[in-house]
Amino acid sequence: MDKTKLNYLIDALLAVSFIVTALTGLALFFFMPSGIPQGRYQAFLGISKTVWLAAHDLAGIIMILLSLIHLVLHWKWVVCMTRSFLKRKEN
Q1: Domain tally, the chain
Q2: What is the span of the domain harbouring residue 17?
Q3: Which of 44, 48, 66, 81 could cross-link with 14 by S-S, CB 3.0 to 4.6 Å?
């Protein structure tokens, strides 16, 4: 797989994992708050809080891993832009 396709794949998967993390986080925050008597037996859309938490955690871990891969793939650009930015400040 060439670098362009790999970048696209990583970025697309990163976007999907972000959306899943965000949506599960919103569902947990607004529809299944902690500290109520039902505890972990709460459900939203027929899915238990335990499953929502597991999906949220897994999507978050995947997002972190994909972010690290994204950073590695773009490391030359990061270094180049940092050097360019620092040179402008010196002049």
Answers
A1: 1
A2: 3-90
A3: 66
